[in-house]
Design goal:
alpha+beta; 13% helix; 23% strand; seven-stranded mixed β-sheet; disordered C terminus; globular; two-stranded antiparallel sheet
Length: 171
């Protein structure tokens, strides 16, 4: 079953939609994928602010977001989210990183989130999540494999002594 994170506390008004986000457990080694995001639509202007609001505070202020240009609706080069400017970069999808969102926080790191298509079933989303977050799944020879190296330079998901995972895992 997929769990979700509320974007706001419950009140007497109708509840806000939930954010479907699951972050990988904190570890000593960098990961290929730091989490999985299952948006409700491909409307970046609607979905991105909710997802950014659900991230751990330890990830800092996300000031840059790179998305697959073909996968998302049109969006401006910048948007104002939680009292800060977030630069949006649209790039062609990489065959090595299909449908990913890359989040950048100056001085704190880079996080790559696998995006599950909004129209995926709950069962498909659960399978995709398990596959994306399991860096030690067996290879063709049945041996565990280490995380794949990334081409990007700089810190990946390192936020200092407190580490990530300051909130409970998402769904």
């Amino acid at each position: 079953m997929i769990a979700t994170v509320p974007t706001a506390p419950s009140t007497l008004s109708p509840p806000l939609p939930l954010v479907r986000l699951r972050l990988a457990p904190h570890g000593a080694l960098p990961r290929r994928i730091d989490g999985v995001w299952w948006p409700y639509s491909r409307d970046l202007l609607t979905q991105l602010p909710k997802m950014l609001a659900a991230l751990p505070r330890a990830w800092g202020d996300i000031t840059g977001v790179t998305v697959d240009a073909a996968a998302w609706s049109a969006a401006p080069g910048r948007m104002f989210v939680a009292n800060q400017v977030v630069r949006l970069h649209k790039a062609p999808a990489s065959p090595h990183a299909p449908d990913r969102v890359v989040l950048l926080s100056p001085g704190l790191g880079r996080w790559d989130l696998q995006v599950i298509p909004p129209d995926a079933t709950e069962e498909a989303a659960a399978l995709l999540t398990a596959a994306a977050l399991d860096d030690r799944r067996p290879g063709a020879d049945g041996e565990a494999r280490p995380p794949a190296p990334t081409a990007a330079a700089g810190p990946r998901g390192r936020v200092g002594p407190t580490g990530r995972g300051t909130r409970a895992p998402r769904w």
